[in-house]
Amino acid sequence: MIAKVGQPSPMDLSTSVGLVAGFLTTVAFVPQVAKIWRARSARDISLHTFATFTAGVALWLGYGILRDEAPIIVWNAITLALAATILGMKLRFG
Question: CA end-to-end span of the chain, whole Å?
Fold first, then answer.
């Protein structure tokens, strides 16, 4: 959407949906990170699953960068940090 000179550019619906969807799917990992950290145990977390998931999120981040899509970049960068934290705690706490 191109704004006319002198008019603010409104956020389009697809960007808004992407931002909200990214927020919800990203914050879903926060309780898991907190639980593993408090328990100092990641025994119930599958290493294979989280390694695969983390790689997938890294690729989604790359896709977002290549497409210059802010919602994909922002939320996948944050999700990647959370997933990498969970993966790291899995390796550390087992």
Answer: 48
